[in-house]
């Protein structure tokens, strides 16, 4: 029902898809619609802004900005590690947050990474759900945010609801931080997206398969059970 | 008798020579080749200035001999591989190779200045199919893992898949290849790959 409704909103996006349907992507028609919207937004807004940001700000300053957000994320990463029962990793993440927030001046210096063993992790609530046994569900492209699945979208919603930047006041400052966060994230992906563009025959399919593979790998912390390719 | 012994020893020594080159363990091979290439890139002014052609040439000379592109193409094709004629297989491999080298060159150009961490090999000495793990360390971010799937052949260890951050290149091309073959046949795929490579050449 929900899908049908969304399809009505994006009629053009729900044209029938040629060939066989991929069982992992039953909403391909809808997804391609959102994908086209995202691509256009990226081409005319996100990428130019990110390029401008890279051109104007020195690498040194951009790294400080990335570190600031990365530090806040360590709080959530730690929480997710605790939820997944990986207590040592969780302690590691929160130790990173403690060091970087203090010695690293509110996180702008990543001093923790210089300590052996205090390596940065990659966790989020979508991965925690996966760890708890939830399958990915259908592939889903979110407006502005891009590739996701039903499980990961739920995870993103939870991560977003509990992240502390939302509490920042005044609202103008909070919104500035959100804006900066998106620009910083896009800027960090400029290289990767160019490589993706070069490598893919059909970018939609390539990106989808890469996302699904990547998420599976992350849930198993980089060591997923080997899938037999024959 | 002594003569026979001497000849036998000489033969043994000769037989051992090429074997020594082939017996470089897979993790040592990956490390040596990677470090050599990274070093050459660092020393080359043209590549540093962005010469993609020179970088591609460097990769072709140093890296390619250690890849088994026929195996990679066959894996990416899956069941469709058997549908291709010998000639089509050759063309597919050629075009896929060109595309992969370009992608690899772009990735190297982007990340060659990062610190690398070569992980110890977790395999038995008798294994003929192993995964060599390398991690690209980046400040403030989780390391990117590079896993080389390698198979032992008569000519030494050969890479048949590269997994970047959990994404297997071979597996990732499977759906694309299958979709194209379903829509326009093996020749259609060759045509698409060729067009893709052409469009990248212009850049």
Written description of the protein model:
- The complex is a heterodimer of chains A (230) and B (203).
- With 230 residues, chain A is mainly alpha-helical.
- Helices cover 62% and strands 3% of the residues of chain A.
- A two-stranded antiparallel sheet of chain A has the order 1-2.
- In chain A, helix 2 packs across helix 7 and helix 5 packs across helix 6.
- Chain B starts with a helix and ends with a helix.
- Chain B has seven helices and five strands; from the N terminus they run ααααααβββββα.
- By secondary structure, chain B is α+β, with helices and mostly antiparallel strands.
- The interface between A and B is large, with 37 and 34 residues.
How do the helices and strands line up, and which of them pair or pack?
The complex is a heterodimer of chains A (230) and B (203).
Chain A lengths: L1 H8 L18 H29 L2 H25 L3 H16 L22 H7 L7 E4 L3 E4 H13 L8 H18 L1 H10 L3 H17 L11
Antiparallel strand pairs in A: 1-2
Helix pairs in contact in A: 2-7, 3-4, 3-7, 5-6, 5-9
Chain B lengths: L1 H21 L3 H18 L1 H4 L3 H11 L6 H9 L8 H26 L3 E4 L10 E10 L2 E13 L2 E9 L2 E2 H33 L2
Antiparallel strand pairs in B: 1-2, 2-3, 3-4, 4-5
């Amino acid at each position: 029902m929900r899908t049908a409704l969304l399809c009505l909103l994006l009629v053009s996006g729900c044209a029938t898809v040629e060939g066989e349907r991929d069982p992992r992507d039953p909403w391909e028609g809808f997804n391609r619609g959102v994908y086209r919207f995202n691509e256009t937004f990226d081409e005319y807004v996100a990428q130019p802004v990110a390029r401008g940001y890279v051109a104007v700000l020195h690498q040194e300053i951009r790294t400080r900005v990335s570190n600031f957000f990365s530090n806040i994320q360590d709080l959530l990463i730690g929480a997710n590690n605790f939820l997944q029962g990986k207590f040592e990793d969780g302690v590691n993440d929160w130790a990173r947050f403690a060091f970087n927030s203090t010695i690293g001046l509110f996180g702008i210096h990543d001093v923790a990474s210089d300590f052996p063993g205090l390596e940065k992790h990659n966790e989020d609530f979508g991965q925690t759900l996966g760890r708890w046994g939830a399958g990915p569900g259908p592939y889903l492209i979110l407006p502005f945010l891009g590739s996701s699945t039903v499980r990961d979208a739920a995870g993103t919603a939870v991560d977003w609801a509990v992240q502390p930047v939302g509490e920042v006041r005044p609202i103008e400052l909070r919104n500035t931080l959100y804006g900066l966060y998106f620009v910083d994230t896009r800027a960090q992906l400029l290289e990767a997206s160019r490589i993706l563009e070069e490598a893919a025959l059909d970018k939609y399919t390539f990106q989808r398969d890469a996302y699904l593979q990547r998420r599976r790998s992350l849930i198993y912390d980089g060591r997923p059970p080997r899938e037999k390719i024959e | 008798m002594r003569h026979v012994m001497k000849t036998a020893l000489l033969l043994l020594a000769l037989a051992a020579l090429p074997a020594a080159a082939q017996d470089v363990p897979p993790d040592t091979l990956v490390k040596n080749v990677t470090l050599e290439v990274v070093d050459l890139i660092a020393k080359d002014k043209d590549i540093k200035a962005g010469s993609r052609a020179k970088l591609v040439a460097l990769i072709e000379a140093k890296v390619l001999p250690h890849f088994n592109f026929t195996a990679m193409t066959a894996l990416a094709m899956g069941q469709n591989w058997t549908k291709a004629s010998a000639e089509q297989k050759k063309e597919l491999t050629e075009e896929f190779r060109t595309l992969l080298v370009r992608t690899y060159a772009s990735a190297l150009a982007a990340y060659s200045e990062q610190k690398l961490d070569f992980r110890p090999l977790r395999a038995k000495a008798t294994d003929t199919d192993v995964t060599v793990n390398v991690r690209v360390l980046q400040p403030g971010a989780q390391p990117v893992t590079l896993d080389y799937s390698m198979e032992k052949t008569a000519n030494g260890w050969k890479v048949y898949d590269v997994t970047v951050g959990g994404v297997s290149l071979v597996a990732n091309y499977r759906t694309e290849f299958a979709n194209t073959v379903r829509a326009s046949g093996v020749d259609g795929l060759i045509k698409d790959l060729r067009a893709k490579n052409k469009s990248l050449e212009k850049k």
